């Protein structure tokens, strides 16, 4: 019933479509950018530096971005960010056409794109809470958004490799056009997305502190953010690591894209079944811990993958369980956080969850250079095993799970 209602929600469909377009473009460049860096520098470490530049703003800018998102019209924030990201992606396409691309330019573009992605994502989440006003529909909405993300990865990654093989500027030109498409759908939204009303004068330091304090005092948010932090570090590190491994093993750009596309296919499958799992599995603890217990051996098994098919299938298995995890945790976050604090508390949660992520790609490349593919994969598998054990024994996850089961029993 929730999914049927969402399909009739015009603004949700528009927001979903716009982000599908932008995600398709950015996914193509996520394959093309490390390939371009490796092509012009022949250095996995420099590819890791570009990945670091593309992730570091997620840590440095979360808190101030959250404060500004709570001050400003959410639609205006999204429009500004879409426009800036279109210009950044287009500059790479132009540089490639002119034959003037430089490593420093790629570092700057990666940083600019990530810088604008931070307030955009916070504003989009705040907008989603307004557009989907029934909290019972939020897990389904988040699962549909994840299906969008994995679906665009499924299409965008092989397409990015294919376009890069045809003409290296094409993935970046497509990314710029996709951001323009996203901008147009945001313009078409009818739901008012104003900044929450305020009674105090703006004060950046005080506002950031309010978000941090509210987040830290909520034990469930604090605990799950730490769990997300470790698991996202592994997932993000795997992407660049697998690209480097595949490239060093002589796989073509198209085969590398197919590896990542098979991973995306697993994510799509997981997103489709996520609402069904949520309805049938009432234990939050079982979902959160169970996903990590599946992920740890799946990452370790990548050691045995010798071709793009087996590598892609194992990546798909790893990613297939994460939509359930995200739908459960993120929906709970959106329900718990009041609207007037949405940007700031979300930014605090994302800061904690994403703090190690900027180092993931560089760590994967460093491990590959020093301990080889097998050693790097086993390090990532060990981190996921720690997540599984912690999620199993943690008291706040057990308490939230017990509360959910009590509510479910009462409602039935």
Outline of the structure:
The chain is an all-alpha fold. It has 17 helices and no strands. The longest helix is centred in the C-terminal third of the chain and has 34 residues, at 360-393.
Descriptive tags:
single chain; 412 residues; mainly alpha; 84% helix; globular
Report on this structure.
- There is one protein chain.
- The protein is mainly alpha-helical and 412 residues long.
- It is 84% helix and 0% strand.
- It has 17 helices and no strands.
- α12 packs antiparallel against α13 (308-320) and α12 (284-301) packs across α16 (360-393).
- The two termini are 17 Å apart.
Count the beta strands.
0
Question: What's the order of the H and E elements?
Answer: HHHHHHHHHHHHHHHHH
Largest sheet: none
- Total helical segments: 17
Beta-strand level of the residues, as a percent range?
under 5%
Stretches where pLDDT is under 50 for at least 5 consecutive residues are 405-412
Query: What is the 3D form?
Result: globular
Rounded radius of gyration (Å): 20 Å
> What is the typical, i.e. mean, pLDDT?
81
Itemize the secondary structure elements and their pairings.
Blueprint lengths: L1 H6 L2 H32 L2 H17 L1 H8 L4 H25 L4 H29 L6 H29 L3 H18 L16 H14 L1 H30 L4 H28 L3 H18 L6 H13 L1 H15 L5 H13 L5 H34 L1 H17 L1
Helix pairs in contact: 2-3, 2-6, 2-7, 2-8, 3-6, 3-16, 4-6, 4-9, 4-15, 5-6, 5-8, 6-15, 7-11, 7-14, 9-15, 10-11, 10-15, 10-16, 11-13, 11-14, 12-13, 12-14, 12-16, 12-17
């Amino acid at each position: 019933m929730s999914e049927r209602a969402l399909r009739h929600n015009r603004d949700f469909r528009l927001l979903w479509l716009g982000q599908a377009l932008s995600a398709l473009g950015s996914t193509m460049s996520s394959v093309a950018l490390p390939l371009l860096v490796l092509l012009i520098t022949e250095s996995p470490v420099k590819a890791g530096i570009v990945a670091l530049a593309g992730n570091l703003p997620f840590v440095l800018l979360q808190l101030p971005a959250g404060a500004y998102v709570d001050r400003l019209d959410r639609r205006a924030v999204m429009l500004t960010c879409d426009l800036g990201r279109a210009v950044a992606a287009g500059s790479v396409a132009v540089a490639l056409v002119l034959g003037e691309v430089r490593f420093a330019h790629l570092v700057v573009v990666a940083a600019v794109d990530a810088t604008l992605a931070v307030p955009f994502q916070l504003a989009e989440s705040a907008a989603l809470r307004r557009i989907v006003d029934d909290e019972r529909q939020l897990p389904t909405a988040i699962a549909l958004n994840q299906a969008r993300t994995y679906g665009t990865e499924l299409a965008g990654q092989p397409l990015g490799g294919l376009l890069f093989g045809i003409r290296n500027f094409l993935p970046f030109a497509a990314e710029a056009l996709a951001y323009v498409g996203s901008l147009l759908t945001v313009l078409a939204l009818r739901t008012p997305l104003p900044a929450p009303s305020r009674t105090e004068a703006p004060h950046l330091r005080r506002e950031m502190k309010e978000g941090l304090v509210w987040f830290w005092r909520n034990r469930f948010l604090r605990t799950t953010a730490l769990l997300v932090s470790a698991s996202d570090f592994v997932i993000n590190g795997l992407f660049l690591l697998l690209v480097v491994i595949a490239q060093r093993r002589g796989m073509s750009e198209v085969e590398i894209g197919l590896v990542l596309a098979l991973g995306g296919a697993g994510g799509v499958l997981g997103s489709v079944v996520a609402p069904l799992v949520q309805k049938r599995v009432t234990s939050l603890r079982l979902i959160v811990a169970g996903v990590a217990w599946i992920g740890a051996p799946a990452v370790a098994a990548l050691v045995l993958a010798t071709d793009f098919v087996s590598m892609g299938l194992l990546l798909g298995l790893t990613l297939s369980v994460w939509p359930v995890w995200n739908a459960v945790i993120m929906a709970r976050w959106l329900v718990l956080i009041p609207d007037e604090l949405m940007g700031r508390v979300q930014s605090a949660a994302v800061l904690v969850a994403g703090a190690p992520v900027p180092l993931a790609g560089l760590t994967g490349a460093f491990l590959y250079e020093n301990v080889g593919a097998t050693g790097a994969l086993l390090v990532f598998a060990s981190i996921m095993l720690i997540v599984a054990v912690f999620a199993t024994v943690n008291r706040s996850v057990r308490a939230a799970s017990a509360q959910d089961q009590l509510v479910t029993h009462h409602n039935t």
